[in-house]
Design goal:
Blueprint: H1 3-16, E1 20-22, E2 34-36, H2 38-57, E3 62-65, H3 74-78, H4 81-84, E4 86-91, E5 98-100, H5 101-127, H6 133-139, H7 141-162, H8 166-175, E6 192-195, E7 199-201, E8 211-213, H9 219-232, E9 239-248, E10 263-273, H10 278-294, E11 303-307, E12 317-325, E13 328-339, H11 341-350, E14 356-358, E15 363-365, E16 368-375, H12 376-387, E17 388-392, E18 398-402, E19 413-417, H13 424-435, E20 441-443, H14 449-459, E21 463-467, H15 469-474, E22 476-481, E23 487-491, H16 495-503
Parallel strand pairs: 3-9, 19-20, 19-21
Antiparallel strand pairs: 1-2, 4-5, 4-6, 7-8, 9-10, 10-16, 11-12, 12-13, 13-16, 14-15, 17-18, 21-22, 22-23
The chain binds adenosine-5'-triphosphate.
Length: 510
């Protein structure tokens, strides 16, 4: 299925089956804002649970935090967000559409990469087994020319962004003949900076002093509390603080469903380390985080690291873990070596000492920080797009199935009495009572069993249990597994063990 169609299918599936609804839909929606429905909230909570388990529960030197969304306004001055949390903005005068200048350039590069990949696919077909991709990349004149072009553009982009040279970014867009996808014209405005923070007023006092911001990242709540946590928890470096919470950004363009929203959730962990050890810990967290993604069944082909060309004002190394979304490889998680930038800034602005006394070195220092920052909503979209499949069955019909990792499924077990009479609903409800204390269950007695199975496949329920007339006498039921569709007759007493073996979150660590 072409990727655009696949993306549309994901969006309509998410709505039809209660995962994601457009926000304020009765008023025609609010752009780039979405609500999670009855199944979406379960899936989202399960992703959070797995992240928390992996980051906090299983690391004795990482603890959690839940800081407020509002912070003292000086926080954002110190962090650099008031002055530098900008995106370069450009408008097309004909279509009146607004774009991020860096994204226009990145999309241009992605097109060249697409051409390289086409050449490689063609050559692979032609040479078969004997094909050597590295050699082809290093010798094929077309690929070499295109790679050179990408490198040239990247170098120019890097220089322009590092110097904050908006004119150079504009010139690059014009030189590359980049046109507006809507009007097809090159009639661009100058590039301007646009601050992404939402500001609001605190209390009833007017004026600048009362301007506060909705946090654009959760990290600053961790920095401002790091000594509170360190002292009250008697933490020794290296240690981490993890947090899940909302963040807000007034994104210039937000057209990709829950990929880019103005209100979203982040799962961040700041790891405080001795200065000088950042390279080691940066590599450690890169490896740890990519493993986490793979543990959810996402294959190597759909994940990659992308080193940042343009380092943020606080970083000495940074990369993204990118996922192959239906619209191409895009950032899913950032891993940043933030140096001591944030704590140093807060020390300067707050005039409070934020130093750690290291008993091993017998000295005070401001710790360095490695950060892992993943967008919960982007992770949700990655899991959804990775799991949604259309399967052709033996009888030639199709089924839509959400092959979610079982521990993440919104509903773990559907309880289905074959008919709505003869005591089967009562028996089914008894079984539900024994299972629902441990698992999210769903009871349904309407429609044929086949239709009920299909509905559960579409929301990714790993098990369906059918209660029939024999169940009343032999205390057995039919259990159907989502992926294999195999149905087995099993004693009711064995259900908890069978279900747990597959849906327990522990299985993700195997
Ligand atoms: P992008 O380059 O896509 O704008 P970013 O580099 O600004 O992202 P970070 O500041 O590193 O993003 O934020 C960490 C994570 O938060 C990202 O990897 C992403 O998963 C998530 N995130 C950032 N902005 C948004 C958004 N507008 N909507 C949803 N998730 C977001």
């Amino acid at each position: 299925m072409p990727s655009e169609d696949q993306f549309k299918k994901i969006i309509s599936h998410a709505k039809e089956f209660g995962f994601i609804f457009p926000n304020s839909e009765i008023y025609d929606g609010l752009s780039a804002t979405y609500d999670y429905g009855q199944n979406g909230v379960e899936l989202k909570n399960n992703i959070k649970k797995y992240w928390w388990l992996s980051m906090v529960q299983l690391n004795e030197n990482i603890v959690g935090l839940d800081a407020a969304i509002f912070m003292h306004p000086i926080t954002w001055k110190a962090s650099g967000h008031v002055d530098a949390f900008n995106d370069p903005l450009i408008d097309n005068k004909d279509s009146k559409k607004r774009y991020r200048a860096d994204v226009l350039l990145e999309d241009y590069i992605a097109k060249i990469e697409g051409k390289i990949n086409k050449d490689i696919t063609k050559a692979k077909k032609r040479f078969g087994e004997a094909f050597n991709e590295d050699e082809f990349r290093n010798t094929n004149p077309n690929v070499l020319r295109r790679t050179d072009e990408i490198n040239r553009i990247n170098e120019k982009m890097k220089a322009a962004f590092e110097d904050n040279n908006l004119k150079a970014i504009y010139d690059l867009i014009v030189d590359l003949n980049i046109v507006c996808p809507v009007s097809g014209s090159k009639n661009w405005t100058d590039v301007r900076q646009f601050n992404l923070m939402f500001a609001t007023e605190l209390g009833s006092v007017a004026g600048d002093a009362s301007t506060i911001y909705l946090r654009p990242e959760t990290a600053q709540g961790i920095f401002s509390n790091y000594l509170n946590v360190q002292k009250s928890g008697r933490m020794k470096i290296p240690f981490g603080i993890a947090q899940i919470g909302k963040a807000f950004r007034n994104e210039i363009i937000a057209r990709q469903f829950i990929f880019r929203m103005r209100e979203f959730e982040q799962m961040e962990m700041q790891f405080f380390i001795q200065p000088g050890t950042q390279q080691k810990w940066y590599e450690h967290w890169k490896e740890n985080r990519i493993k986490w993604h793979k543990s959810l069944g996402i294959s190597n082909d759909n994940l990659r690291f992308h080193d940042h060309l343009k380092l943020a004002h606080y970083a000495d190394a940074a990369c993204d873990i990118e996922f192959n979304f239906p619209f191409g490889f895009k950032e899913l998680e950032g891993i940043h070596s933030r140096t001591d930038f944030d704590l140093k800034q807060h020390e300067e602005y707050s005039k409070k000492k934020l130093r750690y006394f290291d008993p091993e070195l017998n000295e005070n220092y401001i710790p360095y920080v490695i950060e892992t920052s993943i967008g919960l909503d982007r992770m949700f979209l990655a899991i959804l797009s990775h799991s949604l499949n259309e399967e052709k069955l033996e009888d030639g019909t199709f089924r839509t199935v959400l092959n979610l990792p079982a521990p993440l499924a919104p509903i773990k077990v559907a309880i289905l009495p074959l008919v709505r009479k003869d005591g089967l609903p009562e028996k089914a409800r008894d079984i539900m009572k024994t299972l629902q204390i441990n698992h999210q269950c769903h009871y349904e007695e309407k429609d044929s069993i086949g239709k009920r199975y299909r509905r559960q496949d579409a929301i990714g329920t790993p098990f369906c249990i059918t209660i029939d007339h024999d169940s009343l006498s032999d205390n057995s039921v039919t259990i159907r597994e989502r992926d294999s569709m195999i149905q087995e007759r099993v004693p009711i007493a064995e259900l908890p063990a069978i279900i747990d073996k597959k849906v327990n979150i522990n299985t993700l660590f195997n």
